[in-house]
Amino acid sequence: MTSPEPPGRSAGRVAALRALLAQDGLQGFAVPRADEHQGEYVPPHAERLAWLTGFTGSAGMAIVLVQKAAIFVDGRYTLQVGDQIDPAVFEVRHIAEQPASDWLRESLSGGGRLGYDPWLHTADGAARLRAACEAVGAELAPVAENPIDRLWTDRPLRPGAPFEIHPPELAGETSADKRAALAEKLAERGVEAAVLTLPDSIAWLLNIRGRDVPRTPFPLSFAILHSDGGVSLFAPAGKVDAALAQHLGSDIAVEPPEAFDGALAGFAGRKVLADPATAADRIFQVLEAAGALVERGADPCQMPKACKNAAELDGARNAHRRDGAALTRFLAWLAREAPAGDVDELAAAGRLERYRRESNLLRDLSFDTISGAGPNGAIVHYRVTPETNRRLEPGSLYLVDSGGQYADGTTDVTRTVAIGAPMAEMRRHFTLVLKGHIALATARFPAGTTGSQLDSLARMALWADGLDYDHGTGHGVGSYLSVHEGPQRISKLPNSIALQPGMIVSNEPGYYRTGEYGIRIENLVAVREAEIAGAERPMLAFETLTLAPIDRALIDRALLTADETGWVDAYHARVRDTIGPLVDPDTAAWLDEATRPL
Amino acid sequence: MTSPEPPGRSAGRVAALRALLAQDGLQGFAVPRADEHQGEYVPPHAERLAWLTGFTGSAGMAIVLVQKAAIFVDGRYTLQVGDQIDPAVFEVRHIAEQPASDWLRESLSGGGRLGYDPWLHTADGAARLRAACEAVGAELAPVAENPIDRLWTDRPLRPGAPFEIHPPELAGETSADKRAALAEKLAERGVEAAVLTLPDSIAWLLNIRGRDVPRTPFPLSFAILHSDGGVSLFAPAGKVDAALAQHLGSDIAVEPPEAFDGALAGFAGRKVLADPATAADRIFQVLEAAGALVERGADPCQMPKACKNAAELDGARNAHRRDGAALTRFLAWLAREAPAGDVDELAAAGRLERYRRESNLLRDLSFDTISGAGPNGAIVHYRVTPETNRRLEPGSLYLVDSGGQYADGTTDVTRTVAIGAPMAEMRRHFTLVLKGHIALATARFPAGTTGSQLDSLARMALWADGLDYDHGTGHGVGSYLSVHEGPQRISKLPNSIALQPGMIVSNEPGYYRTGEYGIRIENLVAVREAEIAGAERPMLAFETLTLAPIDRALIDRALLTADETGWVDAYHARVRDTIGPLVDPDTAAWLDEATRPL
C-alpha cells in the first residue's frame, strides 16, 4: 500500500482527462487495472489506474464521466481504496454488489459514447461493458490512443530487461515438442493458427522467462502459433539477444510489436483461434476487420502448462526443499526472538526474505509477503507497511504467507505461529483449520473430479462449529511462473475443470476473527495418480510439496482422529528428515523439537 | 418392463408414419417421451414413443427420417431399449455420447424439414433441435396435429378422474396466500402474469391434486397466474366438480383447454413470464405470434414449493412414521422368511406394498418398487418382471428401494439386507456406503451452500477405497407430489441452487458390483436451521425423516469412528422408540434386536 494521494492531484488529472474526452466527443472513459496481457501483475508504465486515482490494488476499474466518476473494486480492496482515493472525485463501488453496468445505467445518457482502450479489456469484458452501454442507448467506443498516455508525462519506461532462457532440463520438454503437439491439435480442429496473448502461455511454449513485471517472470509479448509448429513472436527491440535467438531456433520468427497488427490481418479468410476470456478486444477487432474466420476458444497452452511434467515436478520438489529450509530457519529464529516482544511484521518479513535470498537461488519473491501479527492476520490480503506495522506480542498469533520464485519452481506457503502461550480458543480454531487441511491433503478421488467437488472437505470441520472462511481453498501455481494460475482451482464456485496429474494447487483453509487473529495453513500439493489395491476406477490423490513444521503448540490433539494425528506425525517426520540436513545445527535442534510426534 | 415388441409391428407403424410425413412434405419427425407438461410420468394416451417403438422407459426420443430412424436413450436404458425395439427399424444411440444433434448432422439433408410437435418439447429443447437442423441447412417445422395421433387408432382415453382437494391443514398455507405472495413478486418484476405448465406447480399453487398419471398425484392442466392473484385454470370438462369449484373459490376461473390459446394471445403488448426450460415451445409460439412481451424465467412456484412449510414438514414426519412401520414389518417378515430361500423379488415387492396398503392411507406407491436380489441389485434402475424375477438366496444381498404417496407426504427409502451370512467384502462395502450416508446426514453447512458442494461428503469413504457410484446422491422430493422434484439436488453436477430450510432431499449413496450385488442406503432428510453455540454464520443441517432399521449384520464396526457408531446407535434408538409402538408384537421384538447398539 502506498501513501495516500496528495490532495487535489487526482482531481487535476481527472479534469485534464475530461478536457481530452470533450475534444474527442466522448461522454466518458473506462480505466481498468490491466495491461495488454491481462495478468495479475502489470509493469509500472501500465499502472494507469493508480496514476489516475491513487488506488494501487491488483484489480479494479475507474469510469470517468463528464459529471461524475466511480471506482469499482472487489471485497479485498474496499478498505484500501477508501484510504487511497479522493472521495470528492470518485464514488467507491463494490464491483459484485454494485456492478459497473448498474452504475452506467444510472449515469450514462442515451446517444453518448463511452471510450475504452481495446488493448486493456478482454473481448468478454468489453462485451459486458458494451451491453451495459447499449442498454441505455449509448455506445462503447474504442480509442486509438489511450488518453491517459497523452496526459501522463512522467510515465515510466517500458521494462527493458531481455528475455531469458528457461533451460530444457527444468522445462522437461523442448519447445519444439510442445509446439508440435499443439500444432497437431490446431490442425485437427481445422484452425491455421492460435493467437497467444498470455505471457505465461508464451513463456511455457517457448521455454523462456522475463523480468517485465514484479514477482512473476513474465516475458511480455504476443505470439502466433501456426499449425505447422512455427511461431511468430512479437517482442520489443532488445528483448531477444543472440543467446536467446539461438535458443528459440529457426522456427521462431521474432518480429517487432508493430508487425502484430499486420500479422493478424494476414488471416483474412482463414481460421484462427483466439481466447475471448483472456485476449484483448483489440485482437478480435483487427481479426474481424480483416475478415479472418475467428474461432473463439480457450488458449491451447493453458491446460498442458497446468499439468506439470516429471522434470517440472522434480524441480518443484527441489524448490520446496530449499524454500522449506529457509522457512524453517525463519521459524526457528522467530521461536528464539519473538517471545521477547521485539519482533515486528516488517522485521519478520525482512528476515524471511533474507533467509530465502541466502539460498543464492532466489530470483524474486513470488508475491509481497503477508506478515500479519494479531488482528492484522485476520485481514486476508494484508500487506505490511510502515504505518500498519505491528509488534508480535505474547499471547497473539502471527500469520505469514510468502513464497519464492526459483528457476526450478514457484513456492507459496502459509504458517500460523503462536507467540508465547496461545489461548484455548486459538488452539481449537487452529486445529479445526488443520483438520480441513488434512482432509484435503489425504483425499482420494476419481479422475474427472473438479476442485469445486473437493472444496467442502477442507471446510467441514469448521462448518461443524458454525465457522467458515471467505476465500477459495486452493489456486493453481505455475512452474517458475505465476503463483496464481488456472484453469483449475479448489473453491466453492462451480468450476468444470477436472484435476489432472501434475497440476499444482494450494491447500489453504483458514479462519479469521476480525480484530483478533487470523489462521491459515497452506501447503502446495501436486495431483498424482493414487495406487489403491482393489480400486475399480482411475483414482487421484495429492502429494504435499511444501516442507515446514506446523506449530505443535496450536494443535489440540483431543480434536484429532487417530488418522489425523498419524498424518501430522508422518508429515513432521518427513519435514525433519528432509529439512534437518539442510539447516544449521541450532535450527536442526529446534526442528527436532518442533516435529516431535504429537 | 413390458414384453418385447411383436415382430414387424414397429416396422408397420414407422412405414405408416413415413407415408404421412411424405404427404405433409416433411423429411422426418421427432417423437419424444413427453406430454404437454414435461413430467417424468405421462398418461397412457401420451405414450407415443412406446406406441411407435415399443420402448417403455421414462426418457428418450425417436427420430424417424425417410430412409432411417434412431432412438436416443440415456445410460439407464441402453440394455432395456435393445430388448424392446426392432433393430431392423431403429438404430440405438446413447443420448449423451451420440447426441441427436450429431445424428441429424449426418442424416438430415439441407433444405429438408424435420417435423416436431411443439406441445411435446420445451422451448429450450426445441431450440437445441432447431440449432441441429439449421447447422445442416434444414428447418425444424412445427406440426399442427401430431401425426402419431392420426395413426394411433386404439389410443387410450385421456384420464377422466376429477381433481381433488389438498386440504389446507396439510398444505399449511391457503392458495389465496400463496397467490398473493407470488402476485406481489410478479408485480415487482413488472410482469402481468405467469404461464404455469408444470402440474406440480399448479397443484401446489391451488392446493389441489389429481389422478392423471401413475405414481404421482398430478392434476394435468395449464394455468395463468395474474399479478392480481387471480388464476385462469385450463382443465378438461369433468375435472372440476362442485366441491372443488368451491375450494378453488371465485378468484380461480376454470376454463376449457380450448380457451388457453386465446388467453395467451390476450397478452399482446403485455409482459408475461414463461419458463423456457419447462414450458412447451407451443406456448412461446402463441405468445410471440400475438405480440406478447415474453419474459423468460424460472417457474415462480418451483422454489416456494421446494421449501416445505411447518405443516408440510409435520405431514412428512407423520407419513414417514407410518411408512417406516410398514417397512419395518416387511423387514421383520423378510428376516423370518428369506433364510429358507423361498422369497423372490416379486413376492417381496408385493408383501411390502401390502403392508403399506394396510395403513389404509396409501394413495399409491410413489414409484415402481425396485426389488433386486443378488446381481439384480446392482442394476441401479432395475424393475422386477416375471422374466427377471430372482429368489433371495442365502449369502446374497437384497436391495429394496420403494416409497408411498400419502396425503400428508411422499416417501422414498432404500434398505439393503443380508440374506443369511454376508461375506466380509459385502460388509466392508456396506459400511463405506454407510459412512458416506452418515457424513451427509450429520453435515452442518452455511446458508448458501449448494447440493453440489456437499456431494463429495457422501463419496469420500468409498473414494478412499477406489470405489464410487454413478448416480446422484440426492434428489428433491415433493409434499404428496413428485418423488423427484427440483430445483435442488445433491450431485457431482454443478448446481447453483442453495439448499434452504424446508427442502426435502434424499440421502442415498450406494455401491454396485456388476453381476454380484448392489448396496444403497437411502433416507429422506429435510434441511433445517442448525443451532450451534458460537456459530458466526447462519448454519443449516439435515433432519432425517425416514425411520427404519439399517441392517446391523452388514455393519463392520471396526470401520466406523466413535461419532459414526454413535450416529447409528442414536438413529436406531429413535427408530425403535418411534416405530416400536406402531407395529405388532412380533415385529416389535424383532425391531428391538435389529436396533441394539452396535
Write the layout of secondary structure elements.
The structure is a homodimer of 598-residue chains.
Chain A: H1 9-23, E1 28-32, H2 48-53, E2 61-65, E3 69-73, H3 78-84, E4 91-94, H4 100-107, E5 113-116, H5 123-135, E6 139-142, H6 147-151, E7 164-165, H7 168-171, H8 175-189, E8 193-196, H9 199-206, E9 208-209, E10 222-226, E11 231-234, H10 242-248, E12 252-255, H11 260-265, E13 271-274, H12 281-289, E14 293-296, H13 302-306, H14 310-337, H15 345-357, E15 362-365, E16 370-373, E17 396-402, E18 404-406, E19 409-410, E20 413-419, H16 424-441, E21 444-446, H17 451-454, H18 460-464, E22 474-476, E23 485-490, E24 504-507, E25 510-513, E26 517-520, E27 523-529, E28 539-544, H19 562-579, H20 585-594
Helix pairs in contact in A: 4-5, 5-12, 14-15, 14-20
